[in-house]
């Protein structure tokens, strides 16, 4: 007799093990980010993820953009399963702990060209506008809401630090790509097991490695939020705290060395 996989089972099997491993490595590795700065940045990202994603899921689930298999969830709050809210917390932790291993940093002033800020804001807002336009078509409904949802956040992040993000683009790419590829795999497994089901009606039908393009894009942009947000947060505190008594981001390094 086959045993049905649950959403909580997905957390136990695929999210908690890498979180524990990466957390142990972050504590043990001298070159990994650890301390007040990165951990407080993670705390902020978790809070923002819960606050910002809750209206998004509770808008799309009752419409039928996706739903959950029978017996796959324990209970719901509003329209969203409690396991989904737990995921809002676990994904930033997983992605951040991998980011801590990479630690993308560069010695760059907070002063960046105004045109870079304007282009960053314009890029994010353009994504939101495209999303708004896609809402009129049923097949692009999920994609439209996703782009509309991500656009304002990207506008804020790119407007603040697009120049710095470009400076650290190579380690940043590694920090984003690895958890994104892993979560694509987890999402594909969960869909195959019937833990959740993505609507054919509200999606374009295009797939990436067998995963609906909308789902692949969701994990990409949410990891982008976390990685960019924490990276710029640490950069900001580094610049503010330069030459001050601000607590070190990595107390294991010798005094006077890079505090990350």
From TrEMBL:
It comes from the Archaea. It is a multi-pass membrane protein. The keyword Acetylation does not apply. GO terms for cellular component: membrane. GO terms for biological process: carotenoid biosynthetic process. InterPro entries: Lycopene_cyclase_dom. Keywords: Carotenoid biosynthesis, Isomerase, Membrane, Transmembrane, Transmembrane helix. The keyword Isomerase applies. Pathway: Carotenoid biosynthesis. It is found in: Membrane. The chain crosses the membrane at residues 7-27, 33-53, 85-103, 115-135, 141-160, 172-196, 216-236. One of its GO terms (molecular function) is intramolecular lyase activity. This is Lycopene cyclase domain protein. It comes from Natrinema pellirubrum (strain DSM 15624 / CIP 106293 / JCM 10476 / NCIMB 786 / 157).
